[in-house]
Amino acid sequence: MRLVVAMSKTKTTRKNKLAPKGRYADLTNNFAFQKVFASEEEKSLLVTTLNIFLEKKLAYPIKDVVIKNPYIQGETKYSRNSVLDIRCEDTGGNKFIVEMQVNSQKHFIKRSIFYSSMSIASSGKKGEDWDFDFPNVYSLNFLDFEPKFADKRDDVVRYLSLHDDDYPEIRYDYTGFAFVMLPKFNKSLEECVSLHDKLLFTLRNAHKLKSRPKQLRGKFFDGLFKLARISKFTKMEFSQYTSRMMARADRKAQLEYAREEGITQGLIEAAKSMLKEGLDFALVARITKLPKKQVMALR
Fold first, then answer.
1. 286 domain-assigned
2. Which domain holds residue 287?
3. Quick check: is 278 in a domain?
4. Which residues have a Cβ under 8 Å from the Cβ of 274 and sit 6 or more positions away?
5. Do 222 and 285 lie in a common domain?
6. N or C end of the chain: smaller count of CB under 10 Å?
7. Are 73 and 217 contained in the same domain?
8. Would you state the pLDDT for residue 81?
9. What is the torsion angle, in degrees rounded to the nearest 10, for the CA atoms of residue 68, residue 74, residue 80 and residue 85?
10. Residues 229 and 111 in one domain
11. Which of 23-27, 43-47, 76-80 has the lowest mean pLDDT?
């Protein structure tokens, strides 16, 4: 992704140049995601989002939350510390972890379990009288990739929880996980009727919108788009936002380069094997699509 930052000294010019792709921030960007959904000013956005995606997990709807410090310190100096995107707690004491993850991770599900475990451990109380009645911990993860579940299904949202192996209908909601796989959501805006679908569409497409469509209006989206409007970012916020975008672009380029290098090396090894078997270098070059001079140099 190519980002252009205006260098003009005038406020007017800067505002006109702030949005390289659109008027609104890319909400899969961690900074933008936190700015919108961890806002004290528009805390109802977080409450509504939790209720939408964790409805089947919750015993009752969330009325309000307290947004907590996203930093969780390990128990010892040798333990790993964690910095989450959003950490909050409802009026019933239930704890929530909300993450936006762009880069694919092999063990992301295990990572989510680890973070939830840290949150549970941080709830422990000193003293012999504590009976381990820790508050429920819920992990809501928005992913810009598809983690490897044991099966292949088309569900946009997958839920994991503790349950009885012999009686799966018996569940223990001490901790629960929701994984929202954004790449699996492909509805057009016209197909989005529920708030659930409209929010998913917004998470995927806000930065592509040149103007806000009528389907994305109302109190919830008014607050969301107000916070996501790039021209309203402070200089520091815009710097943080663009630095995250640049870091993502750099990582993507590095992965693509590594992939291409891996493919090329594989073709070279295949060409060497073919030449050892006595195949003509011109045939080897045609099969592998490597330059003839490169194949000749392998002889």
1. yes
2. 264-296
3. yes
4. 283, 284, 287, 288
5. no
6. C
7. yes
8. 57
9. 0
10. yes
11. 76-80
Q: Which of 2-6, 97-101, 143-147 has the highest mean pLDDT?
A: 97-101
114 and 160 co-located in one domain:
yes
> Could you give the CA distance from residue 284 to residue 270 in angstroms, rounded to a whole number?
9
147-152-155 Cα angle (round to 5): 80
Integer Cα distance of 99 and 101 in angstroms: 6
In-domain check, residue 256: no
SS3 21: coil
Residue 229: what residue type? Answer: R
As given in the structure block, the two tokens for residue 98 are 């909300």
Is there a single domain that holds both residue 178 and residue 63?
A: yes
Give dist(CA 120, CA 93) in Å, integer. Answer: 12
Indicate the number of domains in the chain. Answer: 2
Q: Cα(51)–Cα(64) distance, rounded to whole angstroms?
A: 11
Rounded-to-integer distance, Cα 69 and Cα 177, Å: 21
Judge if 77 and 119 occupy the same domain. yes
Per the domain annotation, does 248 fall within a domain? no
Q: Measure CA 13 to chain center.
A: 32
Nearest-angstrom CA–CA distance, 80 and 121: 13
Length of the chain: 299
Instruction: Kindly indicate the confidence band of residue 128, based on its pLDDT and cuts at 50, 70 and 90.
Output: confident
**Which is nearest to 207 in space by CA: 9, 7, 31, 6?**
31
Give the residue, 276 or 86, on which the prediction is more confident: 86
E strands in 108-262: 137-143, 157-163, 171-181
242 neighbors 21 (Cβ within 8 angstroms): no
Kindly state the DSSP code that residue 141 receives in the 8-state scheme.
Answer: E
pLDDT at residue 2, as a whole number: 39
Q: Are strands 137-143 and 95-101 parallel, antiparallel or unpaired?
A: parallel
Match 């929202």 to its residue by tokens: 180
Q: Give yes or no: residues 167 and 270 share one domain.
A: no
β-strand partners of 142 = 100, 180
Q: What is the pTM of this model?
A: 0.77
